[in-house]
């Protein structure tokens, strides 16, 4: 090979590395498996289909993850529901508080089956400890949805401390790190196009797809996935920890974000080549189809979405102020 050709090859390799390397500041979300298990085993989910120990992430591992995120000045999204039911962790409130106290600018969220939220005080308490958003999935029935809906509406009829997304059909205008949002999702229907969790469950969509899909996937580039042991894994499809990138308990986060195995996955995925372990069976990114929905909380929801809140509009106050009358003594 001539010197010029060698230079070309080296330049191409270095450009390739630049293209695949993730800048730590661009990391959008850290997803954490805060508990190893879930109390349910939904038909469309890998949970409960193979044995796992029932344990919460240790306080040492939680501390190490937070320390690493503190060190890099992480200020984006923390998801606490990776491949688990986050409310199974007995110290979940304290954990949320630790994240909030030490990473004050992050947006902390979780998704839950709601089983541990029969007492609505717990919802408020999670928010008081620093949770910004919870998505509660109603998997059972319209009755389950209606019961949750009533309980959440009763929490705060003015939309103050807890912002019930279904009631407003829009997000609050405050900075995300100050949100206290609850979303209730109706997931009890049928005919949805759901993902197959990289082959961990059978296909969950009406149409037939040919795998591997010829599609890119941004997951291993813009998110970091940490299992309950503290290991970084490929993505949220890796329920059996088949592609372990490294260990966040002993390695630095920036080294893990650009570990050789992740660079290799990114190289293939950017070329729309999913012919690798997990990706080869994964239908994520396929046609979206019918999805579980977020039904409106009550008949006034449409007006509120337009910025009108009849419950807050007090005609007597307006008439009094138009006539210049003083309010009655308390
Ligand atoms: C694995 S769950 C873990 C969190 C919690 N246990 C729950 O069910 O909300 C994470 C999210 O994936 C959704 N999910 C589960 N199976 C799915 C599938 N086959 N396709 C798409 N989303 C799915 C759940 O509704 C939930 O919002
Ligand atoms: S979807 Fe959520 S609630 Fe259902 S089995 Fe999976 S982790 Fe559990
Ligand atoms: S394509 Fe690969 S990296 Fe992307 S979600 Fe599926 S299994 Fe994970």
Characteristic key phrases:
11 helices; 9 strands; 330 residues; single chain; binds iron/sulfur cluster; alpha/beta; 31% helix; binds S-adenosylmethionine
Radius of gyration: 23 Å
Q: State the order of secondary-structure elements, H for helix, E for strand.
A: HEHEHEHEHEHEHEEEHHHH
Instruction: State which percent range the strand residues make up.
Output: 5-15%
Shape: globular
Query: Low-confidence parts lasting 5 or more residues at pLDDT below 50?
Result: none
**What topology, given as strand order, has the largest sheet?**
5-6-4-3-2-1-7-8-9
| Helix-and-strand structural type | alpha/beta
How far apart the termini lie comes to 92 Å
What is the tally of helical segments? 11
Characterize the main sheet.
9 strands, mixed
Say which molecules are bound, naming each kind only once: S-adenosylmethionine, iron/sulfur cluster
Write down the overall mean pLDDT: 91
Report on the architecture of this protein.
This protein has 330 residues and is an alpha/beta fold. 31% of the residues lie in helices and 12% in strands. The chain has eleven helices and nine strands. A nine-stranded mixed sheet has the order 5-6-4-3-2-1-7-8-9. Strand 5 (163-164), helix 6 (165-168) and strand 6 form a beta-alpha-beta unit. The chain is globular and about 90 Å long. The N and C termini lie far apart (92 Å). The mean pLDDT is 91. It binds S-adenosylmethionine and iron/sulfur cluster (2 copies). Residues 38, 44-45, 81, 83, 85, 111-113, 137, 187, 194-195, 197, 204 line the site of S-adenosylmethionine.
């Amino acid at each position: 090979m001539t010197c010029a050709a060698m230079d070309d090859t080296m330049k191409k390799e270095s450009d390739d590395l630049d293209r695949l390397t993730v800048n730590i500041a661009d990391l959008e979300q850290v997803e954490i498996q805060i508990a190893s298990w879930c109390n349910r085993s939904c038909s469309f989910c890998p949970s409960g289909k193979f044995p796992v120990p029932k344990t919460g992430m240790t306080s040492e591992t939680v501390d190490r993850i937070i320390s690493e995120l503190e060190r890099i000045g992480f200020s984006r999204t923390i998801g606490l529901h990776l491949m688990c039911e986050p409310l199974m962790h007995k110290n979940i409130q304290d954990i949320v508080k630790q994240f909030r106290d030490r990473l004050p600018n992050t947006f902390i969220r979780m998704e839950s089956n709601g089983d541990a939220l029969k007492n609505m005080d717990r919802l408020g308490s999670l928010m008081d400890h620093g949770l910004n958003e919870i998505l509660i999935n109603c998997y059972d029935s319209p009755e389950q949805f209606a019961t949750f809906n009533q309980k959440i509406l009763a929490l705060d009829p003015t939309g103050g401390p807890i912002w019930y997304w279904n009631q407003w059909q829009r997000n609050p205008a405050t900075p995300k790190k100050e949100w206290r949002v609850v979303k209730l999702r109706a997931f009890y229907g049928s005919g949805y196009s759901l993902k197959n969790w990289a082959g961990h469950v059978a296909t969950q969509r009406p149409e037939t797809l040919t795998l591997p899909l010829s599609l890119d996937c941004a997951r291993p580039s813009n998110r970091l996935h940490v299992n309950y042991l503290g290991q970084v894994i490929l993505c949220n499809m890796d329920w059996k920890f088949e592609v372990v990138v490294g260990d966040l308990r002993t390695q630095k986060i920036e080294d893990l974000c650009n570990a050789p195995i992740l660079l290799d996955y990114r190289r293939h995925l950017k070329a729309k080549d999913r012919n690798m372990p997990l990706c080869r069976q994964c239908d994520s990114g396929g046609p979206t189809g019918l999805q579980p929905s977020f039904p409106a909380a009550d008949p006034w929801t449409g007006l509120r979405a337009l910025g009108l809140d009849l419950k807050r509009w007090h005609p007597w106050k307006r008439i009094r102020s138009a006539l210049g009358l003083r309010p009655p003594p308390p």
